[in-house]
Amino acid sequence: MIDLDISTLDNGVRLVKLSGKMDIQGVNQIGEEFALKISSTGIPTIVDLREVSFIASLGMRILLSAARGVANHDAKMVLLKPQPLVKEALTVAGLNSLIPSYDDLYLAMAALDPINA
Hints:
Layout: E1 2-8, E2 14-22, H1 24-39, E3 45-55, H2 57-71, E4 77-80, H3 84-93, E5 101-102, H4 105-112
Parallel strand pairs: 2-3, 3-4, 4-5
Antiparallel strand pairs: 1-2
């Protein structure tokens, strides 16, 4: 099971907090909502993975799909502070080179700012 919470920061950046396991059940639970609310917009997005304890290939797939969808609208998506095992899985899969990851919220926000990019 995974929980999904979407909010907007003061600077207009969308913050998506995920908590739980991004396994087949978790992805099936949030996949459609995640795709509709993230991929289909041009809003710069931070996906907070601090409380995600596991990520399967399906979880990586929805992250990559969302990042591509956001990029198709001339915006960026970054990840915030994945746990060590999740970060390792993303690195082994090569997603770290496609979706940047930051350990600090302010660094993540700065990466989404077109002036700093």
